[in-house]
Known about the structure:
transmembrane; Putative membrane protein YeiB; DUF418; 68% helix
Amino acid sequence: MDTTAGRGPVRVGERALAPDLARGFMLLGIVLANTPLLLYGDDSGAPPAPADVVAQSVIMTLIDRKAYPMFAFLFGYGMVQLYQRQLDAGSPAVGARRLLQRRNLCLIGFGLVHAALLWDGDILGSYGLLGLIVVAVFLGRRDRTLLRAAAVLAVGHVVVLAAAVVVDLVSDGEYGITPAIPYVTDYSGTEQTSYPHSVLARSTDWARGLLVYGLTPLVIAAVVLLGCWAARHRILERPLDHLPLLRRAAVAGLAVGWAGGAGYALAHFQVIQVPYAYAWLYEATQATGALGGLGYVAVFALVAARYQLRERIPGPVAVAVIALGQRSLSGYLAQSVINAPVFAAWGFGIGAWMTSAPTALFAVGVWLITVLLAEVLRQRTVRGPAETLLRRLAYRSPSRTEVREPR
Length: 407
């Protein structure tokens, strides 16, 4: 039995700028990617309005399949940060591991409740499951092991994708997804007019998809491992020490990520003809999107480096976004609290008639609301409610709600 007390939750003043800045903007990408999935009313087959084409194209090119890899990288980064803080405070390794696993189990529980009540596109459960595996198998391994495993997973993703292409070509597209599939996917429960029925539908789909979305995207697991490796070298805490790496990652990652997204958008609107495009091009964007997500993380690290180099204090806008990043779990859940009852048929039902362009504007508005709420909490030196609950459950002891801000 462990007798050495580990340290409690990290204080806000101890946090690095780059991860929280990235998390804050990551939530903008997530809400822009998720909100269109709540649209369900247009099945007429009529061509979209020009504004909707622009909105969809921008989201496909710049955001789709990039926000979640950002989350994956920062998730792995945060796990290693927490583990190292526990060790530095004198906690035994086994105790630090148990803390991480409790947090991961709590994330799965949060995901179940989130999906059942509001949104079955939840990612918390999948990342909690992935976190359990990463801690059990990879935590404490050598850098070389992490990088090799990440490379194997990334190559495995490409191999699976290539196999799918071959099957599609050999079968003459019999197993592919035709270009007739709409951009907007119907999520269970969205069209349900009965809220209890929608809860059942969402819960069932979440449970069924937990293993699929938690384990099968091999490239996402690779990104988590890269985040673990980066945290060991404190790349985001000390961006000035890693400028060449960050610059290369930003340029190459965004170039590949945007190119993949643009190709998918062009194929979606049939500007270019790609054989069985939806059978493999969409999955290919998961790989290119992962690189794009890493590119975005590198960009925010470079922004943090600029602040450090010039010894500047972030302005009020950046401070508010950072405040949201420090409360990213609450910010993520708040998106569903606002969006689900507004768009779903069991709520106000605007998803039946809204289109892509106004939905994107609505999503930006939701993000701005969460930024403002996070700033209010920052000024009151209060954690986000979800973060407070997670800490109380994971640390098994009451955690102070009030936190100290840096002076």
